[in-house]
Amino acid sequence: MPRFILRPLLALMMTFVALLGATPAWAAVTITFWSHEFGNSFPHAFFTLRGVPDAGGAPVDANYGFTATAVTPALLMGTVPGRLDISKPTYIQGSDAQFSVTLTDAQYAEVLKLIAAWDDKTGDGHYNLNSRNCIHFVKEAARIAGLTGLDQPKLMKKPRSYLQAVAAANVGHIQPVNMHGKAYLAALPPLTSAPIVAAPGPAGPAAVVPPAPATVQPLPAQ
To answer: Partners of 36 in the beta sheet?
Structure first.
């Protein structure tokens, strides 16, 4: 090919590649799994969602757990009313972040469906200490996130032990955290809805905002 044609073509190609490299990229939604041990309340498991979907949109910073609506002897006898549990910041600070997983937008959408399905206002909110407690709730979220080794019958009332077992079964597929809540939250970068310029390496964590149900204090059997 003659040089007077080749040089303009090469220049055009280089310009196109440079423009692609500067195309804005969006951080993905990250789900982080948490446990809370005995203290001012019962053991509990929950998850947080943080970041911005790959498709763009408002930043999200939310948390979801599942609990019984009241602590009564009925908890030990079978199924009782349950509801989503939205933890207060101080409760999260006193909890432990175990590990995180970066979600695709499709997985994030499925997690939102899970939340709606367990919400007593939009789905089935029944709570059962043995078969539908907070650990069963986070187990389903972990399944959506693509994790394995989720069936741990002996640990379904032990939040921290359960999540540690799941983490051990998914080495290489999770982002270990193992930090106390206050320190972990303080280390998180600020959320932004502005585009992030693409850079070499894996994308950083992110999150999204689902509807927020009423806050309730975590209850037993979790």
So the answer is: 44
User: Measuring CA to CA, which residue among 112, 8, 122 is closest to residue 62?
Assistant: 112
The secondary structure element, H or E, covering residue 48 is strand 44-51
Q: HEC string of 66-112? A: EEECCCCHHHHCCEEEEEEECCCHHHHHCCEEEEEEEECHHHHHHHH
Nearest to 134 by CA among 155, 165, 148: 155
* C-beta separation of 29 from 106 below 8 A: no
Structure tokens, 168: 């051990």
State which amino acid sits at residue 135: I
Locate 74 and state its tokens: 């009925």
* pLDDT per position as a tens digit, 118-149: 999 999 999 999 999 999 999 999 999 999 99
Buried b (16+ CB within 10 A) or exposed e, 41-51: bbbbbbbbbbb
Closest CA to 142 of 127, 155, 130, 124: 155
Q: What are phi and psi of 203, to 5 degrees?
A: -70, 150
pLDDT in tens, 49-90: 999 999 999 999 999 999 999 988 898 899 999 999 999 999
Structure-block tokens of residue 110: 């499925």
Select from 17, 161, 153 the least CA-distant residue to 98. Answer: 161
